[in-house]
Amino acid sequence: xxxxxxxxxxxxxxxxxxxxxxxxxxxxxxxxxxxxxxxxxxxxxxxxxxxxxxxxxxxxxxxxxxxxxxxxxxxxxxxxxxxxxxxxxxxxxxxxxxxxxxxxxxxxxxxxxxxxxxxx
Length: 120
Hints:
alpha/beta
């Protein structure tokens, strides 16, 4: 099932990185479409980094967090390092309280910091 434009996660390439600005609720269909588009853009652009910007999300449950981590793993298999950017303090606290596995997750406070981490 194809998702409408209003239900898509926008992607853009900047400074050798694909930036995904996640501002909508993550559903199974949205995530499936997002992953396919991300992997296609990685292949076509030869980008070496991925930034998943979640600064627009007030709520991120454990299932959605794990789905984003799996997406970051997919990008890694395609040869791109990934950074999760813009997690707000309430989301971080809730994820830790829920027992989220954050080992191996690279995170940054904002886009500028995410670019710095990827360029190291």
